[in-house]
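Researcher: Checking consistency across runs. Here is N-acetyltransferase domain-containing protein again:
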Amino acid sequence: MLANTINMPTLTHHTLEHTPLTTIHRAFVDAFSEYEVKIEMPIEKLAEMLTTRSFSPAWSLGAFDGEAMAGFILLGARQMAGETVVYDVATGVTRAYQQQGLGDRLLKDLLARLPAWGVDSFVLEVLEHNTAAQKLYRRNGFEISRKFNCYQKSFDAPQAEQIPSSSRGAEDLRALDLPAYLSFAPSWQNALESVQNNPGQYHLEIIREGGEVHAYGIVHKQRGDVMQLGVAPACRSTAEVAGMIARLRAHTLSERLVFLNVEAGSALDRDLLALGFENTVNQYEMVYQVA
């Protein structure tokens, strides 16, 4: 236990409609300051992440010691296939309140509220090596639905002048059968709705031949995060994936491309390994079905 741990006072739990972003940011930075995966989160980046992932303050929960936030569960909310689904954007406990069961109490409180909110399911991701968190979620009724692998690769300077853009905008995707182009269903943070929540942050690139869309990709213009990469079934090959990756490099300021949450065993998973991407970290998607 940390030397500066505070004996757990009587904390109040409430939703976050009236909680300033600055308060959430302060607690977030403290809670993740010693996290296994280093997280740099200026307040502007946090605001973007919350918008992208459909943050719902009214369905998010904080534990407060007076005005100070001691812990939080930040939820996104979406309608998916006729159901109301929530997603754990971030869960954390500030260092002074860790190792005292606060995360478990917050989670139980939140789960008890979901039926009244009309929620059908609750999705989250947990690092493969974070067995303590996995046990916590299993105890509370979550089950693993699939495994995700994460990849990155650094490149030389972007090739913007070598590969012309062939994208005309998001309307180009509306006529496509996107599930047929993808080798797995995108995770919450990579879903098309995430892109549409912050369209100015992303570039959509499309490869066409003879008027037909052979492949498409979506990349963050600043950070190089690849949200989706899809290839038409008749064209699917590692070479086609490599061609799209080359184009995406031309439309990000980052010298590194990052693929988060690639479903383990999928065609894209195999392609990235074949193309020399480094597997950086893995995690599980877990789902709680609301009774």
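Researcher: Does this match what you'd expect to see?
Model: One thing to look at in this run: The chain has a mean pLDDT of 91.
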